[in-house]
Every structure is written in structure tokens, then in C-alpha cells.
């Protein structure tokens, strides 16, 4: 039996940015220079997880598509539930840590005590085991989007071979080294500024374990036992990180598809529709998504989207669909989480799924623009003149994020 976990956001923002600054810029680390400060104690029982941390960080650091340098440093301290707020800034639970010291802690929660500090008030004592980790850019400049402080916590209480006694009662029989690493890769995606993305929803939600290799790293759910696949960024994940931190050759070696998603009247735009470009020669493997209006403020009726990283000369059809009904609130996508002042994304009734009747292609370095328009039963996409949308929302000089996205056993959230 597989155990599905949901990846929840405690904070608000498809590939796309996790948050957007008031000038429309994505929240990210300046110049792709990222420093991660690992606590001194990386022993879980008798198991040293240092190599797993390196594996998790390298999955992003080694991508040729992105100009990104992740530097691992060390905090000379053992961090647990008694002192976590001295190092981690994660409002509203931890707000006393120094905000501008350049320290971005990565903490291994050996016994689940930190998870309990954050979540037991809401989920009871089982939160110590069912919450598997969280990470985010916790503070950023609200005008420019430049990240100021980040943090990450990973729960090793139910790591195979070192299980705490409460894991079984919480419904977790243990997770492998690859699973643990994959949690890190997904959460560090949020630490770098990425949102969730929905590419192969069918494969992620069916009971067929043979196609789990098609579930992308930033998908909002995870199947225990799928870590060896989930930890390796897929085409959608690579395009997402390159959108924030493009290598010098990324834009010139791929092509970009931009567009607008319209309602039935052909003029009103639809925000928070999911658009997936699928290579007709490899539709499930080479698939890259975008969320309409993801750079705009919540409720702006902005239907613009941009899909980057498409293979030069390859032909792509476009799937237009709603966000899965389970992905709301903490498991959702900014700017349409259905909570904290954000409207829910359009339902499958309001946005029936459709696939473009045409395929689209372009050469390396080129951009093609389309208009996708829904009908009462579906819709279609056609090539169109460029139409620029709105974006960004007001803000103060500094923006506080929450604890980012956290992994939790399915059925326990919201």
C-alpha cells in the first residue's frame, strides 16, 4: 500500500514563483547565490544524514539550466525544540531570530519536537510524526523581491532504522533515505522561490505505481517509496528554476510560449488556470506548466501565462485544466489558495479541461504567443498577437513569509 502525503504551504504563492514583489518581480535570492547553514548535529540516532543533505542540495545546484550556486555552511550549534527560535525565523511561531544576519538555517528535527512546536496545537500530538518538513524564503524585500532570510526544517523521526515509537501509531511505517532526500529537494525548491506545479495529475493520483516516475518534484503530493524518482527534478522543475535563475544559454537554446487564458466571452481573463505544454513526441515526459496570472495579485482576473524551456523545434499541444480540488489553502498555489484573502482557483465546472486542436513550435530563442479561450464544454488555443497583462501588488519595504511548504500525511491537513 502506498502512503500519499500532501505538501502544504503555511505561507503564501504551474511553475511559477512562490511569491511576487510589488514591482512584479519574483521573490528569489540575488544573483543565484544561496547560502544554507546546516546545524552542527546531523546525527539521527546512530545515522549521519550529512550525505543525504548534500544529495538534496546538489539536485538543484547541479542543474545546467540554472545559474545557481548553493553553498553549504555550518552553524556551530545543536538545534532542537528548545532553541529553534534562536536560529529559525518562521512567523508566527518563531519571530525572535536575528533577521538580517545572513544565516539561513537547515535543521534536522531528530525526534519531531520542532514539528510539534509548530503544529501540535492544530493537529494534536500526532503532528510530531505526520509533518515531514517545511522550508521557505521567510523574509524578502517587498519592493524588489530580493530574499533576505530563509529556513528549512526536516523531520527525521520516522527515518527507516531510527524510527521513534510514535511513528507506527501515526500511520507511518518509515521512509527511506531517498524519500527523506526527496522531501529536502521539494522543500528546498520552495527555499529557492518555487511554487508547486501540476503536470501529470493522473499519474500522481492513480493507484498505478509503475508510472510514479512521471510525477514531478514540485507536485503538491508525494507517495512514500517514490523518493528515488521524486528527488530528481523533471522537465517542469528544471524550467521552473531556470525561470528564476536562468543560465546564460537557457533562453537562447529553448523557446518560450506566452499567452492569455480567456473566458467564454473572449475578453474576460481567467486567473489560476493550469496550462501544460506537452511535447507531442513525449507528452508525459516533456511537459512544462504555467499558472495563469501567477505574477499578478490575487483576484486581479489576469490570465497571462508564460511557459519557458521548450525544446527547440519540437511541437507542443496545450492542456488547459483546473487545479486539483484537493490543492487549496496550505496545499494550494498562490495567488489562488482559497484562504488568507485569496479566492479559490476556478473549479473543473468553471474551467472544463481541454486540449488544443493545434500544436505549436518555434526555433531556439524565439517566442510564440497564443490565446486560449474556454467554451461551455471545453475550449481551444490559437496563435495570437502579444497581449501584455498586469502584475504585481503593493507592499512595504520588507515582506515576511511563513514556514513555507510542509509535508504532511494525507488527510491530516486543513
Description:
With 414 residues, this protein is an alpha+beta fold. It has 2 domains: 4-240 and 396-409, Collagenase (Catalytic Domain) (3-Layer(aba) Sandwich); 248-383, Immunoglobulin-like, CATH 2.60.40. It contains 8 helices and 19 strands. The strands form 4 sheets. Strands 1, 2, 5, 6, 7, 8, 9, 18 and 19 form a 9-stranded mixed β-sheet that branches. The chain has a 4-stranded mixed β-sheet with strand order 13-10-16-17. Strand 7 and strand 8 form a beta hairpin. The chain is globular and about 60 Å long. The relative contact order is 0.20. Residues 1-15 and 388-399 have low confidence and may be disordered.
Task: Give a quick precis of the structure.
With 414 residues, this protein is an alpha+beta fold. The chain has helices spanning 50-61, 113-123, 127-130, 177-192, 201-205, 227-230, 235-244, 250-253; strands at 4-9, 33-39, 43-44, 47-48, 69-75, 105-109, 131-140, 147-155, 221-223, 254-262, 274-279, 287-291, 304-311, 316-321, 354-355, 367-374, 379-383, 399-400, 405-409. The protein has eight helices and 19 strands.
Secondary structure: elements and pairs:
Blueprint (H helix, E strand, L loop, with lengths): L3 E6 L23 E7 L3 E2 L2 E2 L1 H12 L7 E7 L29 E5 L3 H11 L3 H4 E10 L6 E9 L21 H16 L8 H5 L15 E3 L3 H4 L4 H10 L5 H4 E9 L11 E6 L7 E5 L12 E8 L4 E6 L32 E2 L11 E8 L4 E5 L15 E2 L4 E5 L5
Parallel strand pairs: 2-5, 2-6, 6-8, 10-16
Antiparallel strand pairs: 1-9, 1-19, 3-4, 7-8, 7-18, 7-19, 10-13, 11-12, 11-14, 14-15, 16-17
Amino acid at each position: 500500500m502506498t502512503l500519499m502525503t500532501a505538501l502544504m504551504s503555511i505561507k503564501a504563492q504551474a511553475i511559477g514563483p512562490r511569491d511576487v514583489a510589488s514591482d512584479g518581480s519574483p521573490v528569489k535570492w540575488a544573483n543565484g547565490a544561496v547560502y544554507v547553514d546546516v546545524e552542527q548535529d546531523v546525527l539521527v540516532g546512530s545515522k549521519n544524514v550529512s550525505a543525504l543533505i548534500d544529495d538534496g542540495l546538489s539536485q538543484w545546484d547541479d542543474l545546467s539550466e540554472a545559474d545557481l550556486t548553493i553553498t553549504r555552511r555550518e552553524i556551530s550549534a545543536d538545534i532542537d525544540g528548545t532553541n529553534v527560535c534562536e536560529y529559525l525565523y518562521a512567523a508566527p511561531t518563531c519571530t525572535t531570530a536575528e533577521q538580517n544576519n545572513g544565516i539561513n538555517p537547515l535543521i534536522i528535527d531528530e525526534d519531531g519536537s520542532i514539528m510539534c512546536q509548530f503544529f501540535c496545537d492544530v493537529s494534536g500530538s500526532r503532528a510530531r510524526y505526520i509533518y515531514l518538513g517545511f522550508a521557505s524564503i521567510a523574509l524578502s524585500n517587498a519592493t524588489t523581491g530580493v530574499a533576505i532570510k530563509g529556513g528549512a526544517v526536516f523531520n527525521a523521526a520516522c527515518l527507516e532504522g531510527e524510527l521513534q515509537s510514535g511513528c507506527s501509531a501515526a500511520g507511518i511505517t518509515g521512509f527511506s533515505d531517498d524519500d527523506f532526500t526527496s522531501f529536502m529537494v521539494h522543500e528546498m525548491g520552495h527555499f529557492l522561490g518555487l511554487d508547486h506545479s501540476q503536470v501529470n495529475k493522473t499519474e500522481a493520483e492513480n493507484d498505478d505505481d509503475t508510472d510514479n516516475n512521471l510525477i514531478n518534484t514540485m507536485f503538491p503530493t508525494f507517495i512514500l517509496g517514490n523518493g528515488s524518482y521524486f528527488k530528481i527534478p523533471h522537465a517542469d522543475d528544471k524550467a521552473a528554476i531556470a525561470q528564476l535563475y536562468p543560465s546564460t544559454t537557457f533562453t537562447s537554446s529553448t523557446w518560450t510560449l506566452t499567452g492569455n487564458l480567456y473566458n467564454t466571452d473572449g475578453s474576460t481573463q481567467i486567473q489560476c488556470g493550469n496550462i501544460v505544454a506537452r511535447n507531442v513526441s513525449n507528452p508525459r515526459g516533456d511537459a512544462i506548466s504555467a499558472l495563469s496570472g501567477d505574477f499578478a495579485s490575487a483576484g486581479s482576473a489576469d490570465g497571462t501565462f508564460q511557459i519557458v524551456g521548450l525544446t527547440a523545434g519540437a511541437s507542443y499541444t496545450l492542456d488547459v485544466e483546473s487545479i486539483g480540488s484537493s490543492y487549496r489553502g496550505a496545499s494550494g498555489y498562490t495567488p489562488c489558495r482559497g484562504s488568507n484573502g485569496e479566492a479559490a482557483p476556478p473549479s473543473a465546472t468553471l474551467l472544463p479541461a481541454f486540449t488544443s486542436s493545434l500544436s505549436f513550435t518555434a526555433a531556439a530563442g524565439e517566442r510564440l504567443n497564443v490565446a486560449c479561450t474556454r467554451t461551455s464544454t471545453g475550449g481551444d488555443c490559437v496563435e495570437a498577437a502579444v497581449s501584455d497583462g498586469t502584475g504585481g501588488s503593493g507592499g512595504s519595504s520588507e515582506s515576511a513569509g511563513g514556514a513555507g511548504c510542509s509535508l504532511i500525511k494525507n488527510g491530516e491537513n486543513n
